[in-house]
């Protein structure tokens, strides 16, 4: 890769503005290859340079991917007008300009949420053409009924007349009020509206998988992990719903029961 200015390198990979970077350099807060630099306009090799700002290493990667286990009470937005946002859960050293949640989870919902600054990846992920399945586990108000399987398979008609694409649903063994559901679309409050259409109510909803990207069982609510690009590509891997449910029932049902 050709050389670029130090301030451009830092600005693209952090939340610092060019003027802030210039000031930090003047104050001796920026190191390049273990040496303090006082000018931010020098040219560097972005693939080889080791840059530290205020004691924090700046990754050479232009794009960043963070998997968050979203807790309740946070909105999937970068705008705090509706309350606390999921961005508050990401430490400053991992944030970059243009970072946003790729997809949404309701304020009272839990689970897997990808946060990134890679707009192309997010577009590919959210495009209907990609058909990325999303798997949720839900705690219901009333016991699960076997009739849901055929109703969801044929496409649920919501109470307002809107039709849903075919979906898969399966009960959690030994937990009569827990169920897994797999969707290939993302209508407003869709899971809750689907169960409402069959006479039930979702008390708690947790997303546990985005395509082949499964929420790690050791990642607690409110915790995050940074992903490599090769890990993010798991989004586009095919999934086996029944195998997923049998494999992860114990893990995710325990999480939801505790909620």
What's the topology here?
Blueprint: E1 4-5, H1 6-13, H2 18-26, E2 30-32, E3 35-36, E4 43-44, E5 51-53, E6 56-58, E7 65-70, E8 100-101, E9 110-116, H3 119-126, E10 134-140, H4 148-153, E11 168-172, E12 175-183, H5 190-197, E13 202-210, E14 213-214, E15 224-227, H6 229-232, H7 241-258
Parallel strand pairs: 9-13
Antiparallel strand pairs: 1-4, 2-3, 2-5, 5-6, 7-9, 7-15, 8-9, 10-12, 10-13, 11-12, 13-14
Notable features of this structure?
259 residues, alpha+beta, Structural Genomics Hypothetical 15.5 Kd Protein In mrcA-pckA Intergenic Region, Chain A, Pseudouridine synthase, 2 domains, 9-stranded mixed sheet, 4-stranded antiparallel sheet, elongated
Description of the molecule:
- With 259 residues, the chain is α+β, with helices and mostly antiparallel strands.
- It has two domains: 4-58, Structural Genomics Hypothetical 15.5 Kd Protein In mrcA-pckA Intergenic Region, Chain A, CATH 3.10.290.10; 65-258, Pseudouridine synthase (2-Layer Sandwich), CATH 3.30.2350.10.
- Helices cover 24% and strands 25% of the residues.
- It has helices at 6-13, 18-26, 119-126, 148-153, 190-197, 229-232, 241-258; strands at residues 4-5, 30-32, 35-36, 43-44, 51-53, 56-58, 65-70, 100-101, 110-116, 134-140, 168-172, 175-183, 202-210, 213-214, 224-227.
- The strands form three sheets. Strands 7, 8, 9, 10, 11, 12, 13, 14 and 15 form a nine-stranded mixed sheet that branches. Strands 3-2-5-6 form a four-stranded antiparallel sheet. A two-stranded antiparallel ribbon has the order 1-4.
- It is elongated, with a radius of gyration of 22 Å.
- The mean pLDDT is 92.
């Amino acid at each position: 890769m050709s050389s670029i200015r130090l301030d451009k390198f830092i600005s693209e990979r952090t939340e610092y503005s060019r003027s802030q970077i210039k000031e930090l350099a003047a104050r001796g807060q920026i190191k390049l290859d273990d040496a303090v630099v006082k000018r931010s306009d020098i040219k560097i090799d972005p693939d080889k340079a080791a840059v530290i700002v205020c004691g924090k290493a700046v990754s050479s990667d232009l794009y960043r991917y963070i998997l968050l286990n979203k807790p309740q009470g946070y909105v999937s937005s970068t705008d705090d007008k509706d309350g606390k946002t999921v961005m508050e859960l990401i430490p400053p050293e991992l944030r970059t300009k243009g970072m946003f949640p790729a997809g949404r989870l309701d304020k009272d919902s839990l689970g897997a949420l990808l946060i990134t600054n890679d707009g192309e990846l997010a577009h590919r992920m959210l495009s209907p053409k990609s058909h990325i399945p999303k798997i949720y586990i839900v705690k219901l108000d009333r016991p699960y009924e076997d009739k849901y399987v055929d109703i969801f398979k044929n496409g649920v008609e919501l109470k307002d007349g809107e039709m849903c694409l075919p979906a898969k649903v399966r009960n959690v063994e030994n937990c009569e009020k827990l169920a897994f559901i797999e969707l290939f679309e993302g209508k407003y409050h869709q899971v809750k509206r689907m169960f409402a259409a069959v006479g039930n109510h979702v008390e708690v909803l947790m997303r546990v998988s985005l395509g082949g990207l499964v929420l790690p069982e050791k990642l607690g609510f409110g915790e995050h992990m940074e992903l490599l690009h090769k890990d993010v590509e798991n989004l586009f891997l095919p999934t086996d719903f029944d195998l997923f449910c049998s494999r992860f029932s114990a893990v995710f049902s325990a999480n939801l029961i505790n909620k």
